[in-house]
Amino acid sequence: MSEAASARKPARERILDTAAELFYREGIRAVGIDTIIAKSGVAKMSLYRNFESKDDLVCAYLERSISQHGAWWDRVVARHPGDPRAQMKALFVALAHWIDHPKFQGCPFTSAAAELRDPDNPARALALAHKRMVRDRLHRLAVAAGADDPDRLCAQLQLLMEGAYAAGRALDLGPGNDAVASAAAMLIDAACGQARP
């Protein structure tokens, strides 16, 4: 986006865009309010008019990330209507593509939960709520796909997903990160019966 287009955005959006980029790339604790103000090009008063505190800004960042992740999930599964097994597999193919992206820095929710250790922190609660939402959505797909043990398959897939987020930052998982998608497909086929539709 050009500087002119960015400048036309409302201050709240510019602040949130800047914070999201910096929090994801650098880490929440490593990025100070002054850096966000400088990079977003807004006045300090404007930031505090839109966000009461850094904690409030972090929550807004995670809420927006939750919404974006939910939209991504919906787009991926919509490509395979009525086929929950294919939907689960497609999620891991899409995840493998994301891991290949040059801007990939892991899962923002895992990172937030790791950085924000205070159990009373509302941003930590959002990050953990997102993890529960992913588990619930995977579980519904496992049930719909006829998995013999939906709880087990859901736990395995979520563990694979978390491992892929971590390994994607530190390891070369091969062209297209095929290991992620193929491991998920093996788990799904084993749990749902290879021959079943």
How would you sum up this structure, described in words?
The structure is a single chain. The protein is mostly helical and 197 residues long. It is built from 10 helices and no strands. The protein has helices at residues 3-8, 11-26, 33-40, 44-50, 54-78, 84-100, 108-115, 122-144, 150-170, 178-192. The relative contact order is 0.11.
- How helix-rich are the residues, as a percent range? over 70%
Global Rg: 19 Å
* Basic shape: elongated
Number of strands: 0
Assign the structural class, choosing from mainly alpha, mainly beta, alpha/beta, alpha+beta, or little secondary structure: mainly alpha
Oligomer: single chain
Strand percent estimate: under 5%
Unreliable runs: none
Overall pLDDT confidence:
90
**What is the count of helical runs?**
10
- Main beta sheet strand tally, sense and closure: none
SSE string: HHHHHHHHHH
What is the end-to-end distance? Answer: 44 Å
Main attributes of the structure:
197 residues, mainly alpha, 10 helices, elongated
Summarize the structure.
With 197 residues, this protein is an all-alpha fold. Helices cover 74% and strands 0% of the residues.
Describe the SSE topology:
Blueprint: H1 3-8, H2 11-26, H3 33-40, H4 44-50, H5 54-78, H6 84-100, H7 108-115, H8 122-144, H9 150-170, H10 178-192
Helix pairs in contact: 2-3, 2-5, 5-6, 5-8, 6-8, 6-9, 6-10, 7-8, 8-9, 9-10
